[in-house]
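Example record

One chain of 126 residues, shown exactly as stored in the release files.
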Amino acid sequence: SSGINAEYGMLKAEGKAMNYSDLAYLVVSDIMTVILVTDNLTKQMCTLFMFLETNKPAQQRMFAELREVELKTVGDLGKLVYTEQCLLEALRMGPALTRGTRVYQVPKAGEENAGSLCGFRIPEKT
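Predicted structure tokens for this chain:
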């Protein structure tokens, strides 16, 4: 792993040997990093697709962009402008560190803008 290699390189440059507890700590640290990254990636992708499922026009536009843009190199990812916007919005709406999603308060009957949120009509009991 890169963390272990970097730490080993620093110890070697200082003329120090890596003992078992140092190595064990680094291995556990790297494993935890992989677990946390995987957990957050899974959560963020679920959040993205949850929001896309509730916004069909955005879903169709993002999927169309994914089908239309030809990706031959990592540099071509910059062509996925709308997809990046959707990912960033999913990160904003369901930040990984809070372990939840943001909840909207929809105005109730009799209140100003009842049944709508940000200009969009919200069906009852949804």
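Notes: The mean pLDDT is 75.
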